[in-house]
């Protein structure tokens, strides 16, 4: 079974005032294995976020096929968690309440909900902030809360749109380690949109490079070496430079 299967996926937007149509994505063909970590990189405006929203079910395709575990994606589902750039936490709820949100649709008792939410927060390293509110936390802590909520949701795959763009390098590395541990433990798939090419190469099983006008897949790369051995590997540096050169030619 595949996590995602895309066949001829296209997305166009009508601009009535300008009497024209903009093609955001054109004939995307792609498949992803269960538990795989895929990053999407490419120039601004190439349709990366549009593709992610189509996978999430937040937008409707113009043409083609989008399957999640063999079923058509025709709207949002608890089987697909979405973590936006700003973490997506509700500011009027505490961190614990935010993490518990997905549990309200399941047949858990109140005590079971609290226990499960606490276990997810503890795994994410934010249990001591359970009663705090999002505005009281740093960017990194808010993203940890978003990860804890995704795990509590027990979805099949997590879709992330530039999740750590506002963090400093040290915080990003800490979040990268926490994220890999989370998803490896639960065998959850990940699709991450990022401008950080090196981060994509360090974390991913495959990196999808997109081109623009219209948005399309230009190439798909598999980083060499096990993830634990990539940080200082010359092969990763060489691949990073190669992707940068490629992007200069496909913008």
UniProtKB/TrEMBL annotation:
PROSITE patterns: ABC_TRANSPORTER_1, ABC_TRANSPORTER_2
Presence of the UniProt keyword Nucleotide-binding in the record: yes
Domain ABC transporter: 4-237
Keyword set, alphabetical order: ATP-binding, Nucleotide-binding, Transport
InterPro entries assigned: AAA+_ATPase, ABC_transporter-like_ATP-bd, ABC_transporter-like_CS, ABC_transporter_ATP-bind, P-loop_NTPase
GO molecular function, one term: ATP binding
Name of the featured protein: ABC transporter ATP-binding protein
Organism for this UniProt entry: Sulfurospirillum tamanense
Taxonomic lineage: Bacteria, Pseudomonadati, Campylobacterota, Epsilonproteobacteria, Campylobacterales
């Amino acid at each position: 079974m595949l996590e995602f299967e895309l066949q001829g996926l296209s997305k166009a937007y009508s601009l009535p005032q300008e009497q024209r149509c903009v093609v955001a994505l054109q004939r995307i063909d792609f498949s992803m294995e269960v538990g795989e970590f895929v990053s999407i990189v490419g120039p601004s405006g190439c349709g990366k976020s549009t593709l992610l929203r189509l996978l999430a079910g937040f937008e409707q395709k113009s043409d083609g096929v989008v399957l999640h575990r063999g079923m058509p994606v025709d709207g949002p589902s608890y089987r697909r968690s979405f973590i936006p750039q700003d973490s997506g936490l509700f500011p009027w709820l505490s961190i614990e309440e935010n993490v518990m949100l997905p549990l309200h649709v399941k047949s858990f008792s109140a005590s079971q909900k609290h226990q499960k939410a606490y276990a997810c927060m503890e795994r994410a390293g934010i249990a001591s902030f359970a009663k705090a509110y999002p505005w009281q936390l740093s960017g990194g802590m808010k993203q940890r809360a978003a990860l804890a909520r995704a795990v509590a949701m027990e979805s099949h795959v997590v879709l992330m749109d530039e999740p750590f763009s506002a963090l400093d390098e040290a915080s990003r590395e800490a979040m990268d380690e926490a994220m890999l541990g989370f998803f490896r433990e639960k065998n959850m798939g990940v699709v991450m949109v990022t401008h950080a090419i090196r981060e994509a190469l360090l974390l991913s099983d495959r990196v999808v490079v997109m081109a623009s006008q219209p948005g399309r897949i230009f190439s798909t790369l598999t980083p060499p070496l096990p993830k634990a051995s990539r940080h200082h590997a010359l092969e990763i540096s060489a691949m990073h430079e190669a992707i940068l050169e490629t992007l200069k030619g496909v913008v």
